[in-house]
Amino acid sequence: MSGMISPTDLTFLLLENPNRPLHMAAMTIFKKPQGQESTFGARLFDAYRRSRAVKPFTRKLAWSGTGIAAWQTVEPDMADHVRQVDLPAPGTMTQFYELVSTLNSGLLDRSRPLWECYIIDGLENDCLAVMIKVHHALIDGEGGLRVMRNFMSDSPDDERLAAPWMAPEGGAEVRRRRPRVSQTQRLQGQLRGLTKLPADMIGIGADIVEFGVQALHLKPRMASVPFTAQRTLFNNTAKSAARSYADTGLPLADVKAVAAATNTSINDVVMTVIDDALHTYLGERGAPTDRPLVAFMPMSLRDESGGAGGNQVSAELLPMGAPGADIGERLRQINGATKKAKDKGRRMQTTSRQVYALLLAGSMAVSDSLPGLGNAPSANVVISNMKGPAEQLYLAGAPLVAFLGLPILPPGAGLNVTFASVNDTVRIAIGAAPEAVDEPLRLARLMDQSFQRLQATTRRTP
């Protein structure tokens, strides 16, 4: 059985190279159940090796003789996909990040389904991590969060040793079955859909006009224009597969309190913290910018029913706060920019939003590959926001203590910051080329300081 690959998903495969792996990685860290400190890791590894996968984790890449890509459904050999690595106990978080940086640097084997899992035992405080690498062509960030949520339970009494690739409790495929459609019928449907594309592309044409009007300063900018961001240290792209990682966490209740007090959103507050810390980091390295940083921001297009595989996102180039703005004013500027971006997105058809996202992503790739455009990037940083589970979760009685991501670096990007709300914390994950951010832990500490200043400013506001 096989299925065609969407243009968006195919793009992730075609743009990947040894210096630019385009898989996602996430780690869930659990505190081992009392009395199982020496046995839990071995039990979990054995259960994972004996487990069975469901879609999309059964999809293997296949190329036809005419160069057309498709997904082929196979039964994964778990010995190829599940591995165990032990840190010398008690492993520190610094040692943990050094290990996962090494594990995450290699490309996924395209002769197999595009995912791997590592059980990392020996962490300090009797903890264990489950790290999973999944190619971005197989599943997007929102879908990834969904499958990560599905393998955990909200009950400490649930003893299932479940995994992200396994079927949720209740059946192998928890979704409404659709009539089987042949490849020919599917292709005919896609070709018929192309006849509707020109009407949907009206939104793109209007945006091209907007770019011209904004570039001539005839009206205020609703978004940044491609190739007009100022080059910064963060635009130094990777020269190898090496990556640097760090993360921090902000109390969700405190973030919500700041958002409520300023009539902004959680997204606005966290973006302000990131933006402020980035400017401070540049200043400490004697490389400040005199213009607002521009963020390339993916935005989810999923409806409430969701869906397991593929990518359903749009994107925008978002100018952030002015370099010299105090942190309260920075929040107001970012809030205004995000409101305009959302209003613009609502006016566009879904098809045109998706094509528009590809055009923006392409502008970043072009600036990274064509001589002369490297000094005229479209964005300085990729920022993603995902919503995680709000409740305390468990794996076979082991409480989840942290959810950490290793953001990918798309073409043209040297820095990716991804944040997600998980239980009572907003986790902010930093993934960077060492050429762009040589001290990610310092950047994480600056984000903590920025949030403390924003809180203090909010308390002083009458």
Automatic annotation (TrEMBL):
Q: Which UniProt keywords apply?
A: Acyltransferase, Glycerol metabolism, Lipid biosynthesis, Lipid metabolism, Transferase
Q: Write out the pathway annotation from the protein's UniProt entry.
A: Glycerolipid metabolism; triacylglycerol biosynthesis; Lipid metabolism
Which protein family is it in?
Belongs to the long-chain O-acyltransferase family.
Its EC number is 2.3.1.20
The GO molecular function terms of this record are: diacylglycerol O-acyltransferase activity
List the NCBIfam families: acyl_WS_DGAT
O-acyltransferase WSD1 C-terminal domain spans which residues? 310-454
Q: Which InterPro entries match?
A: Acyl_transf_WS/DGAT, O-acyltransferase_WSD1-like, O-acyltransferase_WSD1_C, O-acyltransferase_WSD1_N
Q: Which organism is it from?
A: Mycolicibacter heraklionensis
The molecule here is called: Diacylglycerol O-acyltransferase
Sorted alphabetically, which PANTHER family does this protein's record hold?
A: O-ACYLTRANSFERASE (WSD1-LIKE) FAMILY PROTEIN, WAX ESTER SYNTHASE_DIACYLGLYCEROL ACYLTRANSFERASE 4-RELATED
Signal peptide feature range: none
Q: Which reaction does it catalyse?
A: an acyl-CoA + a 1,2-diacyl-sn-glycerol = a triacyl-sn-glycerol + CoA
Which processes are annotated in GO (biological process)? biological process involved in interaction with host; glycerol metabolic process; response to hypoxia; response to nitric oxide; triglyceride biosynthetic process
